[in-house]
Amino acid sequence: MTTSVEPPLMAALKTKMRWHEARQAVLAENVTNASTVGYQAHDLRPVEAEEGGVGLARTAQGHMTLASSAGVDRDESRSTFERTPDGNSVVLEEQMIKAAQNQMDHQMAATLYAKSLGLLRTALGRG
Questions:
Q1: Is the pTM of this model over 0.85?
Q2: Which residue from 28, 62, 98, 104 has the highest number of Cβ atoms inside 10 Å of its Cβ?
């Protein structure tokens, strides 16, 4: 019987993809409740690299981050002060931008995961 040990990079990418999937559900819920009286928009906190796991470091100002394919950092901690008279805090434009960025970040993680699998298969002579 063989046991499967997943490389830390692969585990980190899977965690990142699951987080983006969960975030997409939260953003979709915000859009769905855009006209619900008193509804407050939600978002997930960014996933942190597990202790002892693989993390990404931005070592130079010109390096891209997973948070933005344009190389410009996003301010996820910023909260909106826009509210409708009925107390709803969902701004559809903001939610759609977040959903698009989230989808791009998920696709980047999925592509990296697939490329890593290909490299492992090649290294094992199964590629």
A1: no
A2: 98
